[in-house]
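Notes from the 1:1 (GR / supervisor)

We went over the backlog. Supervisor wanted to see one worked example end to end before approving the batch request, so GR pasted a single chain during the call. The sequence is below; no edits were made to it. Supervisor asked that the structure be written out right there so they could see what the output format looks like.
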Amino acid sequence: MYREDYDRAGYLVLPKGAARVPFVILQTLLPLLALVAISAMQSPARHAAVFYCAAVLLGGGFLYFALQFVIRRSRPAARRLLAASIVYLPLLFALSATLCNSVGR
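Structure output shown during the call:
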């Protein structure tokens, strides 16, 4: 999203040329696929089942925006992916805190 700004400043954040697009696709999808897969593979205790199900759903939503970015490769899709990344972690932490508080009672 800020590729031109980084280029003007002389920072090499992404590879140049033809390698840029495959690199961005891999850096976008692989971590999110791993995130969802790890959440789905957990064998949670009964009280944590809600957390892992919600983590898979949140990760799936995050992955949806990543796929939209990979398919469209547009600035609006990049902004939505950035917004999803900002929303994902606080929601996951809030869910975790809520679960910990309810189990502790």
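Supervisor's comment: The radius of gyration is 17 Å.
Batch request approved.
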